[in-house]
Design brief:
The protein is of the alpha/beta class. Helix content is 45%, strand content 13%. Strands 2-1-3-4-5 form a 5-stranded parallel β-sheet, sandwiched between helices.
């Protein structure tokens, strides 16, 4: 039986809010014959337009982007049923310790910090293109010591929405659930994080001390 020829290059689309970062990454992937850079985007919405318009292997996106942040991009890809969907690597300078875990939970394939060398990002893309998951070390052996690991996917969505300043009514509308259901989830969320109200929950989320 004839075998399929090996793919000559890895098709990549980039998204980052910084024109300087986008220019640097574009040059890095342009000059490397292992990759074909199909498009760049300055925000999450334009990246999602590329997902609809193009068929590519790897998307490298920022976490904090205008119009549509990295988390929203991952959620849209997870819920949208796009086939074939690109594998997503989040490349960010945001040092909040909970982000890699969120990327993993939302279906991302890899995470790379902008504090790492450019070579590290290249290695991450190559590994993800081979079907591997690439994340920094996260201790998941003791879930009881990590409140974030006890949150359900819905509770994680609510926590992110709280951090963005959304009201209960806005959250109910966005997630298509009732206000009573929002209040139920928030009660469980506060209990798991050992906080009394949304202000304390948001403070822990933004400080990244969910692991303390």
């Amino acid at each position: 039986m004839a075998t399929q020829p090996a793919k000559e290059s890895i098709d990549v689309v980039l998204a980052d809010k910084s024109p300087l970062v986008l220019a640097g990454l574009s040059h890095m992937f342009d000059v490397d014959d292992r990759f074909t850079l199909l498009a760049t985007a300055a925000d999450g919405e334009r990246f999602m337009e590329a997902v609809v318009r193009l068929n590519f292997d790897i998307g490298i996106i920022g976490w904090d982007m205008p119009y549509m942040e990295g988390r929203a991009v991952l959620k849209a890809l997870r819920d949208g049923g796009q086939e074939p969907a690109p594998r997503i690597i989040v490349y960010t300078g945001n040092s909040a310790p909970g982000i890699p875990r969120q990327v993993m939970h939302m279906g991302g394939a890899g995470f790379c910090s902008k504090r790492e060398s450019p070579e590290r990002l290249i290695e991450t893309v190559l590994a993800v293109s081979e079907g591997r998951m690439v994340f920094p070390f996260m201790d998941i052996t003791g879930p009881g010591s990590d409140p974030f690991s006890t949150l359900t996917a819905r509770e994680q969505e609510l926590l992110a929405a709280l951090a963005q300043g959304h009201t209960n009514a806005q959250i109910a509308s966005e997630l298509n659930i009732s206000l009573n259901t929002v209040k139920f989830h928030l009660k469980n969320l506060y209990s798991k994080l050992n906080v009394r109200n949304r202000a304390q929950a948001v403070a822990r989320y933004l400080k990244g001390d969910l692991y303390s």
